[in-house]
Amino acid sequence: MAERDTSRDIDQAASEWAARLDRGPLSPEMEAAHRAWLASDPRAKGAMLRARALSMMSESARALGSDFDPETFAQPRRPRLSRRQALTWTGGAAAAASLAALGVTTAAAGTVIGTDRGEIRMVPLKDGSTVLLNTQSRIRVRYDDGQRLVTLLKGEAYFSVARDERRPFVVEVNGRRLRTAQAGFRLRKLNQDPVDLLVNQGRVEVSAAPLIGAARIVAVTANTRLALSDPAHLSTEQPRPVAPETVTRELAWREGKLAFEGETLGQAAAVFARYSDTRIQIRDPDLAREPVTGLFAANDPAGFSRAVARVFDARLQQDGDMVVLSRAGPAQAAGQ
Fold it and tell me: Per-residue pLDDT tens for 127-169?
């Protein structure tokens, strides 16, 4: 009985296939061998999609030359979540110009800052804290002598809170208040979904807004998430531990990447729609349920779709801002 390939074997084979595909079209014999390999093990398609995702983020195998190492190429690296690539601004005239460019409006209720589709922006606050806004997000900032208050109006934001012994840092969302002395956390408010809190550093205390009058406080610590219910159902809320690698995937957007680990193709298409005017339409329900794994550029739905079409033997058509994926029939598959 033949010994089953290890996951490492599968990943290395996938990286080698990705390198061949980067060098140019496969011969009919190699194409047949590639299809046979994809069908040989249930893990092969996921490994191939990961390798193709890495291929799209790196130089082509042709440019890598004789020093190309398939084993190194196969190993996905966690994104380095630095802030150096994010937009920043400083004081004085530069700050005023940046506020105008960022679509910031100032009113008595505070300063409102927002992003458009596909934009990710760093907002430095005057106490040394920062807020990184994801696509189509909006916050209101109100600082005074008693507290530092930020309201998440919509979208997704990552807060890096600097310690201030005199004033607590408070984030308000949907009638709830999140309070911390020093922490790093992501807060997401999308459509009708429950507000989602993910903490990766420090401690955040969640309570109802003062007008609600609820005394219960939920403490959320590092590598923990909490789905915020409405104030009438506070007693049902329970923080859930999250694996560090899951935290890394969920925060990949801070570097303009989207990370998937088993989500369906339909779910991935919906995520891409937040970042680009190009839409991915999946016309086959079975294809829409296929699991997706890999790290992709958030602003490249067409590149993602090409990788999916190759791995799942699908047909891709692009018409303006619409990318259509459908199952390739027998005749189409034979001609690819």
Answer: 999 999 999 999 999 998 888 999 999 999 999 999 988 899 9
Q: Left (φ > 0), alpha (ψ -120 to 50) or beta: where does 108 sit?
A: alpha
Report the C-alpha gap between 281 and 100 in whole angstroms.
36
Question: Model's pTM, two decimal places?
Answer: 0.70
Q: Are strands 279-282 and 240-241 parallel, antiparallel or unpaired?
A: unpaired
CB atoms within 10 A of CB 246: 15
Helical spans, DSSP H, in 129-283: 244-250, 265-272
Angle between helices 301-311 and 265-272 (to 10 degrees): 170
Residues 6 or more apart whose CB falls under 8 angstroms from that of 89 comprise 95, 97, 98, 99, 124
Measured between alpha carbons, how far is 202 from 182 in angstroms, rounded to an integer?
6
- Helix, strand, or coil (residue 24): coil
CA–CA separation, 183 vs 307, rounded Å?
Answer: 37
